[in-house]
Design brief:
The structure holds 2 protein chains of 2 kinds. Chain A is of the alpha/beta class. Chain A is built from 10 helices and 10 strands. In chain A, the strands form 2 sheets. In chain A, strands 6-7-8-3-9-10 form a 6-stranded mixed beta sheet, with helices on both faces. A 4-stranded antiparallel beta sheet of chain A has the order 2-1-4-5, covered by helices on one side. Chain B is of the alpha/beta class. Chain B has one domain: P-loop containing nucleotide triphosphate hydrolases (Rossmann fold, 3-Layer(aba) Sandwich). In chain B, strands 6-7-8-3-9-10 form a 6-stranded mixed beta sheet, with helices on both faces. A 4-stranded antiparallel beta sheet of chain B has the order 2-1-4-5, with helices on one face. Classes of the chains: A alpha/beta, B alpha/beta. The interface between A and B is large, with 33 and 38 residues.
Chain lengths: 270, 290
């Protein structure tokens, strides 16, 4: 495509099914379960979009399909106008730098045998960056980690610090798009607030496009300007955040909101 | 007289002298729910484990009392202590998947405790298990009793652990983050269920959680912990109207509240952390000088 498009990430009628290994017979193929059932939306450049849903709604699968850690079984995924739906790994490699993912559990997504420096430097090396040391230092600065943390191992860090390393690893590559999958749900409220502040700042300063997967609508309200609500692999509501909170349209969204225990003993929590 | 009274309970990491609990005192009366809140590492689960006698080997209790119905557990010989805890207290654990044995059917996992610890006849224990599953609103108790844990959803597994905790009619239950692994709609059902069961059985409930939203729904009283020290011990209503301690106030301001985005999800300020750390150090010094 000659011109860069205003829509960075487009998902069209996305379907994804996976074999259900819990029902696999001893011989023969496992039956397939439909996880995503025809999802469509477009993310504008520079937008921050929340993707919310209960467990099993398909939100993580959707995220993984968007950054092509999974291959969709139907529909299309377009990144900056390029169809990446069925691209092989070799074809994806030059694009991978541009869409990064931050994972839910920093303990399992950071190599326990590597120091923070190596964890951040490795993808830089793979993508052929020069002056790697300087970039590692800059990434640490950007996420508010002291430079001496570069010499630490993940187990020597707190949960909030580990999550910052995950963020540093992603932004060091100067991506256009970041997918964050439940990245604050394992953190204490205070670290949660700090990481949200950090993301807010990075999105603003670096002009990132962010898809933020979460089960927590309070967190999404704080960070995102638009919310996509998923239920059983389909979009039930997709609206600007302010509208959604003012008057949730879908029954399921209302149920999600009503289930949140607010820190307020007077809330009617029928 | 409270069913559970903890007085000046202190614990440390063996051989390192690192304090984990600092002169913790709290009470839970029959029929009452007390929330135990704090950030990770504050020692909230540690208190629950100390009561139930399941502290990790590396942790030593260095002082204080844990009174269950007026009897100090720490003064009892181990065998007697275990019997006393087994007969009067139970745990609702955090992760229903790791708390259940994956290779055994649900039925046996509920009845074992009744047969082995309380010496019930198997038939009586089985009848009780069916009754309990009905009480936690499981639709097909017979089928579920024959199921393996992986065949059930997270919410269903948590219902089973609740049933199992209430099985022997304990007078105290420690619930350790029982809904952290669940999504909000299921969390609500499970919290309502725990509340209803607790009220019906008149159980004293110590509810360990990091979520002040949950505390405001389930508890009447709460203790806020920082670095193993209780910084505030209060009732729920006055607490949410205005916490007394600066650290608790900061913790409340950090709690997500979608109805008030501007005044929630605020990081705990450095100054507040420094002040509470000083307070902990001062308290340690005073205790050191006896």
């Amino acid at each position: 495509m000659a011109e860069p498009c205003a829509e960075l990430h487009v998902v069209e009628n996305l379907h994804l099914s996976l074999p259900d290994m819990t029902r696999k017979p001893i011989f023969g193929a496992a039956p397939r379960i439909e996880i995503l059932r025809g999802i469509s939306f477009a993310l504008a450049k520079g937008s921050v979009v929340g993707i919310v849903g209960g467990s099993g709604s398909g939100k993580s699968t959707l995220g993984r399909a968007m950054v092509r850690l999974l291959e969709p079984t139907g529909g299309r995924v377009l990144f900056d106008g390029i169809d990446i739906t069925h691209r092989g790994e070799a074809g994806l490699r030059p694009l991978r730098r541009r869409f990064q993912m931050i994972f839910q559990d920093p303990t399992s997504s950071l190599n326990p045998r590597h120091r923070v420096r190596t964890i951040i430097a490795e993808p830089l090396r793979l993508h052929g960056f020069a002056d790697i040391d300087a970039r590692v230092v800059r990434a640490l600065d950007q996420v508010g980690l002291a430079r001496e943390m570069a010499g630490r191992f993940p187990h020597e860090l707190s949960g909030g610090q580990r999550q910052r390393v995950g963020i540093a690893r992603a932004i060091a590559l100067e991506p256009d798009f970041i997918l964050a999958d439940e990245i604050v749900s394992g953190l204490d409220v205070s670290s949660q607030a700090q990481v949200l502040n950090l993301l807010e700042r990075l999105v603003r300063d670096l002009g990132l496009t962010l898809a933020f997967i979460s089960h927590d609508l309070s967190v999404i309200r704080r960070l995102c300007s638009r919310v996509i609500v998923l239920r059983q692999g389909a979009v039930v509501e997709d609206r600007p955040t302010a509208d959604l909170f003012a008057a949730p349209a879908a029954e399921y969204t209302r149920e999600l909101l009503a289930s949140i225990p607010l820190p307020d003993p007077d809330q009617t929590w029928g | 007289m409270s069913f559970l009274t903890i007085r000046n309970l202190s614990a440390e990491l063996k051989g390192h002298g690192v304090p984990l609990l600092r002169r913790v005192s709290l009470q839970v009366a029959a029929g009452e729910v007390r929330g135990l809140v704090g950030e990770s590492g504050a020692g909230k689960s540690m208190i629950g484990k100390a009561i139930l006698g399941i502290l990790p080997r590396a942790v030593a209790i260095t002082g204080g009392e844990i009174l269950l119905d007026g009897v100090d557990l720490l003064q009892l010989p181990p065998a007697q202590r275990r019997r006393r805890i087994g007969a009067s207290a139970a745990l609702i654990p955090q992760d229903p998947l790791t708390a259940l044995n994956p290779s055994r059917r649900i039925g046996g996992q509920i009845t074992d405790r009744l047969v082995d610890i309380l010496g019930w006849q198997r038939a009586r224990a089985e009848a009780r298990a069916r009754e309990l599953l009905a009480e936690v609103q499981i639709a097909e108790p017979e089928r579920v009793l024959r199921s393996y844990p992986h065949e059930l959803s997270g919410g269903m597994r948590q219902r089973i652990l609740i049933a199992s905790a209430f099985a022997a009619e304990p007078r105290l239950i420690v619930a350790d983050e029982p809904t952290t692994a669940l999504d909000v709609t299921v969390q609500k059902q499970i919290l309502k269920l725990i509340q209803a069961m607790q009220a019906r059985h008149g159980t004293a409930l110590l509810f360990v959680t990091h979520d002040l939203g949950v505390v405001s729904k389930v508890c009447q009283k709460l203790s806020v912990l920082y670095a193993g020290m209780v910084v505030e011990d209060t009732e729920v209503r006055p607490f949410f109207a205005g916490p007394k301690h600066a650290y608790s106030a900061a913790l409340l301001a950090a709690t997500p509240k979608y109805t008030d985005p501007a005044a929630s999800l605020q990081p705990v300020p450095e100054a507040v952390i420094e002040a509470v750390r000083r307070e902990v150090a001062d308290a340690d010094r005073r205790a050191g000088h006896g």
